[in-house]
Amino acid sequence: MTTRYTAKEKPKPKPKAKGKKRKATKKVEVPKTSPPLCDFAEWIDMEIDPRNAEMLGRQHKWEEERMNRRLRLVTIEIEERKRKEERELREMEKEIAEKEEHAKERARKVAREKRAKEAGPEAASKGKYPRCTQ
Where do the record's region annotations for Disordered lie (predicted)? Predict the structure, then answer.
């Protein structure tokens, strides 16, 4: 009689639950001091090469010129805006004066017409200058 060997079946792994996240169990150690700014402090030069110093000087000069130019442009813009506002104000005042003058002239003409109507038709023949001279 022969014996049969049967392999033991491994248990199937349990499926992990989807959507559930576990919290971290390992604690992070917080350093008591801040990290150094630079590990290679001995490599940093304190001297500036003359060529680099000249270049830095030119950059500062250009930046200053650029700022001066911008400041001049802003002041010019402000002055132009003021002149434009003053010109518009003068034009508005001129228009108002013209309208008032026109209204006065119109009122004068209306009053003259009214006086002429009140005087009647015989007043037309009594003009200062005769219409027909012979």
Answer: 1-35, 85-134
Which helix (H) or strand (E) element contains residue 116? helix 50-119
Global model pTM greater than 0.85:
no
Dig out the tokens for 127 from the structure: 């003009």
pLDDT value at residue 129? 52
Domain membership flag for residue 102 = yes
Task: Flag whether 94 is in a domain.
Answer: yes
**DSSP secondary structure of 7-52:** PPPPPPPPPPPTT--PPP-SPPPPPSSPPPS-TTGGG---S--HHH
* H or E element that contains 56: helix 50-119
C-alpha span between 130 and 132 (Å, rounded): 6
Tally the domains of the chain.
Answer: 1
